[in-house]
Design brief:
The complex is a heterodimer of chains A (426) and B (920).
Chain A (H helix, E strand, L loop, with lengths): L17 H6 L4 H7 L4 H11 L11 H6 L13 E6 L8 H8 L1 H15 L3 E6 L4 H16 L15 E6 L9 H8 L23 E5 H13 L1 H7 L7 E7 L6 E6 L4 H8 L9 E5 L19 H6 L8 E6 L4 H15 L5 H18 L6 H14 L8 H15 L1 H10 L6
Parallel strand pairs in A: 1-2, 1-4, 2-3, 5-8
Antiparallel strand pairs in A: 5-6, 7-8
Helix pairs in contact in A: 2-9, 3-6, 3-10, 5-6, 5-7, 6-9, 9-10, 13-14, 13-16, 14-15, 15-16
Chain B lengths: L2 E4 L2 E4 L6 H7 L23 E5 L8 E4 L10 E3 L3 H14 L17 H9 L22 E3 L9 H9 L6 E3 L6 E3 L13 H5 L5 E3 H4 L9 E2 L2 E2 L8 E7 L2 E7 L12 H5 L13 E4 L5 E4 L1 H12 L4 E4 L6 H11 L4 E2 L6 H14 L7 H4 L4 E5 L3 H4 L1 H10 L2 H9 L7 H8 L6 E5 L11 E4 L2 H15 L7 H12 L3 E6 L5 H14 L7 E5 L5 H7 L7 H6 L4 E5 L9 H9 L3 E6 L4 H4 L3 E4 L8 E4 L4 E5 L12 H11 L11 H11 L22 E2 L30 E2 L28 H4 L14 E2 L24 E6 L13 H7 L3 E5 H7 L6 E6 L2 E10 L6 E5 L13 E6 L21 E2 L5 E2 L1
């Protein structure tokens, strides 16, 4: 398979500087656009490419961009493009690779995206712990400014764009685009109520697009090589390639660029090398900590947004977490819920107070204090906290996904904890 | 009007409102926490959940938040659907995980919105078995008590304090279920409207600290509709009493005046009512200077004998009721009735009176001020001179954001979204003042000028408005801003004691009245009834210096401490020139101390009367409880005196309503006074309005420590209110609403059951009546005043008004005195630097023969050649606005040591000295 997003990433994981990036066809897309493609042309290509957001929700990127009002439909002022590089989903480490090893790919994608939506200011909101990525992006930005790829009158096109790197002060919730915007404005990172969506009233109340790192990295290639080429890359209904990752007790945990629609079995058994000796696959979270468990019966499913959705989970970030047969599923869910409860921004009641309640019930079960009625309480909480719309944003419903699917697939484990008054895995 | 369906019931609802509002308007009980009628929706508590159905066939529906969902034609909802009720119960159950269940010892208990909502959703049994989270409380000053464990994280406090009131020192900290609402460190809350936290908080996190020290449950309070006498805004208040003590003051909703909020002077400044410095008995001065206590009747007879056949003059008061002032005027005759203003104030108030009666500009209510889209403030620091108006201006600058929101189809109640959209875009607010003001943070422009120059500058604006652009660019610009506004507002007032400023402000308003937009004009005046007494004074009325110069044989002083209005020589002359002085007042003061007879007057909380606020609105207050000891309301003292002296018209009058009627008849301006509130004969379904709640407890036992026989309840022969639990407190005329309560709604949120619709007027209308109708003729005033001539090494004195400290009565409340601190001088940073002093140092200020040591406060923005002095402090009593002063460093000055009054911190951290040994 042709490497697209990772073509500049070698095993040594050294950064690609401007010279190396350009030597390998970098900034070709940008030069092509600046030489005469209109924002409308770019928008059409992206819409046509069927690119879907790689941050987890899989929302069609072209459609998202199309909601930005044109200049004649909004009050005069700035428009913003924000790159969501606050990669904090448990089990996810794909954006880090892209930023550390090929920062210019992201920057080119951002310039093209900003041009398409008419933004004149852009931000990279990056996870504060990504010190190496921060350093490398900073260097890359310097190179771009020095060579006229950023700033006023980019490549003589008359288009100007400034780009700022903003390391986050660090909360999981900053990955939620409106919480990210609040954080960028210097406010508490609480998500905002939608509508209005950021596309019409986002950063500083202005039209704003927030896209994930990987999504933006796809843009130069689609612009350069066309929507049809991009669509041929996917094996199934979704277009392009994707960084898939596997963590857990497999032989070869890691991250690989594979076509969209690659079967799960291929990812786990071929690329990740299968389970470590002495461990059996019990289940897995297909797209990070806030997706529903799938089990061995789902191994032949293709990693496509709708296919995974139909199986009762979400493709999320495409980075799987493996549950093996020697790890307690209750303990794993408790660990996740503890994380989500701690990362709740505290704005709405079901999330702020509901998740700690679930945590407490799970802890009782895991530590052998569980009562038969606890399972009822957990089901009640799933109904109360888990439904989209019950809470202010998607954090708490996401947190409930591993819990609700664990109860479905590993119910006996929960029962056993309660009946035996201890964790059978310890 | 769209039609929506709630549980099959068809409802006609208002366009643009949300489902929660629609439900409350329909009288449905939908619980909520974070939503507030004045602050809109943010969707944080998730309590007002309903089920919305797509169409008639949809039986599952989905949960939506009432406060975040706009009404749409034909939309279908259910409040009673099982998933909705189950969800609402789950929300309360989660809120209760960490709530301490300390209701029996919580000051909110019995009027707690959280209690009400918990009962409403039916939550009873607790399933959570974990530990509760706990927090450290903070010392927030003498006014607000903090008890963070009770917090349910509704964000109301932060949104009120920061977004609504413009405070900067209280907010949300930390996150998840450890969210904390407080200051960055312990300390006194800075905002002048912090007291509203008590009513905004749906549970007991922020409670009224002075009330805690002498606590009673809401249901045990005897309350009456009243009017704040702290300033001329005339906020409606609901004071509560028990055991003969005024316990606390709550806001009383008036749609057009104070809405939901009071300033801290209004809420906390009534402690003086319980003061030990209150006068209990009448006294007659003896030869040795002491007073002999005498009975009411004896005092009255003595006073009458003194007055018989003598030349009697009276001094009224801008803080006494219209009725007391009116009776005094009738008793002594208009030509012997001084309104009680100082020499500088009297012509100003006469001028204000004339302006309000003749201007073409609209004199706005606070509700109307909130609608202004361009505001020019001349010379006032409104937060300190008319506090509640400043809170309204903080809302008026948001009109820009509402305009932006409308363009986007975003409803105003989407509070967070509207704020995020507008960010710091605000409607213009231009402040021209001698010193920085508390509204500078939201002003589009602040201009620092000495009082004379403010007047001059305002005249340039008038010229620019008339089409003669002046050489002053700023003035031209401001004229343009005002001309292009749809609803401009000019605010000025008497705080600089400067005629020129007021007149020029009026001239601006008048010229804008020729524009199609018209113009609103608001004039801040000094005291609660300044306008009322100004209306009673006429051309023949003597001024205070007139009385000093030709002293009467007998002088009747009603609720006026002349020390605040006369200089020491004048005071001396007036009180000792062979004049028999009879004074009635509440608290010991210099005037009482120099009088030959003192009569104990009832406070506002023990008497009845009308006050005319700055917009000419007459409002009635009623006694909360009977005056103790031998105190009498001033109007009763005067009526009794009139009877004893056989006054020809007054001696026929016995009752309050007759006084009102006579006053209304005496003068065209007071014709409407009778409509300020229903008269004594008013009955609701045959009964008077009860001051006590129907749960009022312990009435038979309250007094048992003194006498086992239950005393008869007092009868109120003067008002339609009864000292009783009997009767209905429901939908009566707004002026007669003593407290709010409704079945299932024990907290102040029950107000919505009294409102005709959410955030609308009360079902019983709006209390009070406007006395003045502006005429079409227009107020033509010529700005004529003598400019202050500056001298080298001198500064011009500018009065600095303080919400805590400048008011005569409230400062007799311990907590307010603590907030007020001591007399001070405000210097610009440059002047301070030149003098070599910094904040907290002392200087000696010399002016007009007085020399005082004052604490230095440093300001960022001060007009050239100006220094400010804290008004109303004992130290600054004889400093006069506009006079010149010199400054010198006070070498004797000792910086006051800050003292921590209380702290929740276990013990202060030991200070570790360098040697390593710890000592506290």
């Amino acid at each position: 398979m042709e490497k697209v997003l990772t073509r500049n990433i070698g095993v040594d994981q050294q950064p690609t500087d401007l010279k190396a990036y350009e030597a390998n066809g970098g900034y070709q897309g940008l030069r092509k656009v600046m030489a005469g493609m209109s924002p409308q042309d770019c928008q059409a290509v992206i819409s046509d490419s069927n690119l879907r957001g790689r941050g987890g929700a899989g929302f069609p990127t072209g459609m998202k961009w199309s909601f930005v009002p044109s200049d004649d439909k909004c009050t005069p002022g700035h428009k913003y493009l924000v790159c969501n590089a606050d990669e904090m989903e448990p089990g996810t480490f794909k954006d880090r690779l892209l930023m550390e090893c090929d920062p210019h790919q992201l920057i080119e994608g951002m310039i093209l995206s900003a041009y398409t939506i008419g933004a004149d200011i852009s931000y990279i909101f990056i996870r504060g712990e990504y010190l190496l990525a921060i350093q490398r992006l900073r260097d890359a930005l310097k190179e771009c400014y020095a060579s006229g790829l950023l700033g006023d009158n980019i490549l003589g096109s008359g288009y100007s764009l400034n780009m700022y790197l903003h390391p986050s002060a660090g909360r999981y919730i900053c990955g939620e685009e409106t919480a990210l915007i609040n954080a960028l404005e210097g406010k508490r990172a609480n998500p905002r109520a939608k509508p209005p969506f950021p596309q019409v009233s986002g950063l500083w109340g202005r039209p704003t697009i927030v896209n994930n790192v990987e999504t933006l990295c796809n843009i130069p290639h689609i612009i350069d090589r066309g929507a049809d080429w991009f669509k041929t890359l996917g094996l199934g209904e979704d277009a392009g390639t994707k960084l898939f990752g596997v963590s857990g007790r497999v032989k070869n945990p890691g991250c690989w660029e594979l076509p969209m629609g690659t079967p799960i079995r291929e990812i786990i058994e071929q690329h990740a090398g299968g389970m470590r000796d002495g461990y059996q696959l019990k289940g897995f979270l297909p797209g990070g900590g806030s997706t529903d468990f799938l089990t061995t019966e789902h191994l032949d499913l293709a990693m496509d947004y709708n296919v995974i959705g139909a199986a009762g989970s979400r493709m999320g970030t495409g980075t799987m977490i493996i549950l093996d047969d020697r790890t307690c599923p209750v303990g794993m869910v408790l660990n996740l819920i503890r994380f989500f409860a701690h990362e709740s921004c505290g704005f709405c009641t079901p999330c702020r107070d509901g998740l700690p309640w679930s945590r407490q019930v799970l802890q009782d079960i895991e530590e052998g204090r569980g009562q038969p009625e606890d399972l009822e309480t957990l089901s009640y909480q799933i109904k109360y906290i888990g439904a989209i719309g019950n809470t202010h944003c998607a954090l708490a419903p996401g947190a409930m996904e591993p819990l609700q699917s664990a109860l479905k697939y590993f119910y006996d484990d929960f029962k056993q904890h309660i009946s035996s008054g201890r964790c059978p895995y310890h | 009007m769209p039609t929506i369906f709630i549980d099959g019931q068809e409802l006609q609802v208002n366009d643009g409102e949300n489902i929660l509002e629609a439900c409350l308007n329909a009288g449905l009980d939908l619980p909520y926490f974070c939503w507030h009628p004045a602050m809109g929706s943010i969707g944080s508590c998730r309590q007002c959940a309903l089920v919305q159905y797509q169409n008639e066939d949809d039986t599952r529906g989905r949960i939506i938040m009432g406060c975040m969902t706009p009404v749409t034609e034909g939309a279908r909802f259910s409040l009673k659907a099982e998933n909705a009720t189950e969800f609402r119960e789950a929300v309360v159950e989660s809120l209760m995980l960490n709530h301490p269940h300390d209701c029996p010892v919580c000051a909110e208990g019995g009027e707690c919105h959280l209690q009400d909502m918990t009962v409403m959703v039916g939550h009873r049994d607790r399933r959570y078995s974990g530990k509760k989270n706990t927090h450290r409380n903070q010392y927030l000053g003498p006014l607000i008590h903090h008890e963070m464990n009770r917090c349910i994280t509704c964000y109301r406090c932060e949104r009120y304090y920061k977004d609504y009131a413009g405070g900067t020192d209280l907010g949300a900290q930390a996150s998840h279920d450890h969210l904390y609402f407080g200051r960055h460190e312990e300390g006194v809350l800075e905002n002048e409207f912090s007291g509203n936290l008590v009513e905004v908080c749906p549970t007991g996190v922020f409670t009224d600290k002075p009330f805690l020290k002498q606590y009673s449950r809401k249901w045990d309070l005897q309350s009456a509709p009243s009017i704040c006498n702290g300033c001329a805004v005339g906020c409606n208040i609901a004071p509560g009493e028990r055991y003969g003590k005024l316990k606390r003051v709550h806001n009383r909703y008036n749609h057009e005046v104070n809405g939901y909020f009071l300033c801290d002077r209004g809420r906390f400044g009534s402690g003086y009512v319980n003061s030990d410095a209150r006068l209990d008995y009448a006294g007659i001065k003896q030869a040795d200077g002491s007073y002999m206590a005498v009975h009411q009747q004896q005092a009255l007879e003595t006073a009458a004998s003194w007055m018989q056949g003598k030349k009697v003059a009276g001094i009224g008061s801008p803080r006494a009721s219209v009725e007391a002032n009116y009776l005094l005027r009738e008793l002594v005759g208009a030509e012997h009735f001084a309104a009680g203003f100082s020499e500088a104030e009297a012509p100003l108030m006469a001028s204000v009176r004339r302006i309000l009666q003749t201007t073409q500009a609209m004199i706005p209510s606070i509700k109307q001020i909130e609608a202004a889209d361009a505001v020019l403030v001349l010379g006032e620091d409104i937060t300190h001179t008319a506090p509640r108006v400043a809170l309204a201006l903080r809302q008026s600058v948001r009109n820009k954001s509402f305009e932006l929101a409308e363009q986007m189809g975003l409803p105003q109640w989407q509070d967070a979204a509207v704020r995020n959209l507008a960010q710091d875009q605000r409607s213009p607010l231009i402040i021209v003042s001698a010193m920085e003001t508390r509204l500078d943070d939201i002003a589009s422009q602040c201009i620092s000028l000495a009082p004379d120059q403010i007047a001059e500058f305002a005249v340039s604006i008038v010229e620019a408005l008339a089409g003669e652009p002046s050489s002053n660019k700023q003035a031209n610009q401001i004229a343009e801003i005002l001309q292009s506004a749809k609803n401009p507002l000019i605010i000025s007032g008497t705080s600089m004691v400067h005629w020129g400023i007021v007149n020029a402000a009026v001239a601006i308003a008048e010229s804008l009245c020729t524009e199609p937009s018209g113009c609103m004009l608001s004039l801040c005046i000094p005291e609660a009834n300044s306008l009322g007494v100004a209306l009673l004074a006429d051309k023949s009325s003597p001024s205070l210096p007139d009385l000093v110069n030709s002293p009467p044989e007998v002088l009747l002083v009603v609720e006026n401490d002349l020390q605040r209005r006369l200089n020491p020589q004048q005071m001396e002359q007036l009180m000792s020139a062979g004049t028999l002085v009879i004074s009635m007042d509440m608290l010991e003061n210099a005037t009482l101390g120099a009088s030959d007879m003192v009569l104990p007057a009832a406070s506002y909380a023990e008497s009845q009367g009308s006050l005319v606020n700055m917009e000419g609105r007459a409002q009635r207050y009623f006694p909360v409880f009977e005056p103790a000891a031998e105190r009498l309301p001033s109007w009763q003292w005067l009526l009794k005196l009139a009877a004893l002296t056989n006054h020809k018209s007054l001696s026929k009058i016995e009752h309050f309503d007759q006084v009102v009627a006579a006053c209304a008849k005496s003068q065209a301006e007071f014709t409407n006074l009778v409509d300020a509130a229903p008269d004594q004969s008013f009955r609701d379904r045959g009964l008077k309005i009860p001051r006590q709640t129907h749960r009022y407890s312990g009435r038979t036992a309250m007094n048992a420590g003194v006498n086992v026989h239950e005393p008869q309840q007092p009868h109120d022969h003067e008002s339609p209110l009864a000292f009783s639990m009997e009767g209905l407190n429901r939908d009566q005329p707004a002026a007669l609403t003593p407290y709010v309560w409704s079945p299932g709604w024990n907290s102040n949120q029950s107000l919505q059951k009294f409102q005709a619709e959410v955030d609308g007027p009360l079902k019983g209308g709006t209390a009070g009546v406007k006395l003045l109708q502006s005429s079409a003729s227009g107020a033509t005033q010529k700005a004529s005043c003598e400019a202050v001539e500056m001298q080298a090494h001198h500064w011009q004195l500018v009065p600095v008004h303080q919400v805590h400290g400048s008011d005569e009565l409230s400062v007799n409340t311990d907590e307010i005195a603590e907030m007020a601190g001591m007399g001070f001088v405000s210097l610009g940073a440059a002047v301070a630097h030149k003098l070599g002093v910094s904040e907290g140092d002392g200087v000696v200020l010399a002016s007009g023969g007085t020399e005082v040591s004052l604490e230095v406060r440093i300001l960022q923005r001060v007009a050239k050649n100006c220094i400010g002095f804290g008004l109303g402090y004992a130290e600054t009593l004889y400093l006069r606005a506009g006079s010149l002063a010199t400054l010198a460093v006070d070498a004797q000055w000792q910086r006051p040591q800050p003292q921590l009054i209380a702290s929740d911190k276990a013990t202060p951290d030991p200070i570790v000295a360098e040697g390593g040994s710890a000592h506290v």
